[in-house]
Input
Amino acid sequence: MDFEHVNGEDKEKVTLFALSTCGWCKKTRMLLEKLGIKYDYLYVDLTSGYERDKAVEELKKYNPDVSFPTIVIDDSDVIVGFEEDQIKSKLG
Output
């Protein structure tokens, strides 16, 4: 899977699974950038074939409902949806 990288403060490993057409995903990206957090993201809807299968398989490890946005912090903490207070608490 080819994640896109956004530079910022190197606190935790932050991975965002998102959709390119999702307004809440866009808000999540904007918040992460406002907080100055370094993160990687993948627009799952822009993948196809084997890459999409791998992306969904990876996402299901953290969010069995495969809903967006999903933020994974240090491969253990998961925030599903645009939960601004949770995001700020964990990463702010």
Q: What stands out?
A: Residues 49-62 form the longest helix (14 residues).
